[in-house]
Specification:
Length: 99
């Protein structure tokens, strides 16, 4: 596995209606590096956002979609998504404030 640093683990936040509704219960959704595991994601969130304490991490691998252009078929890139549950006494992530 590649040498992945904590700032390479979290790629970007996922902003959808479902993920915004889950924020009220301190669940945040991120796109993460495909080779990262749950412990790496937990460490990255706690280092990138000071004052946060992660309770658990759920991950899911998303296969690339099949796309077509004329008679040629191709696939988009694979992705990995992580849903991070913060503890009750944890500080909220300011990145999502005001959305």
């Amino acid at each position: 596995m590649a040498n992945i640093q904590y700032y390479d683990v979290i790629l970007k936040p996922v902003i959808t209606e479902k993920s915004m509704a889950a924020m009220s219960s301190k669940k945040y959704t991120f796109l993460v590096h495909p080779e990262s595991n749950k412990t790496m994601i937990k460490e990255a969130v706690e280092k990138m956002f000071p004052g946060t304490k992660v309770e658990k991490v759920n991950t899911m691998n998303l296969d690339g979609k099949t796309k077509r252009r004329g008679m040629t078929f191709g696939k988009t890139a694979k992705r990995k998504k992580a849903i991070v549950q913060l503890k009750e006494d944890s500080k909220e992530i300011e990145l999502f404030q005001g959305l």
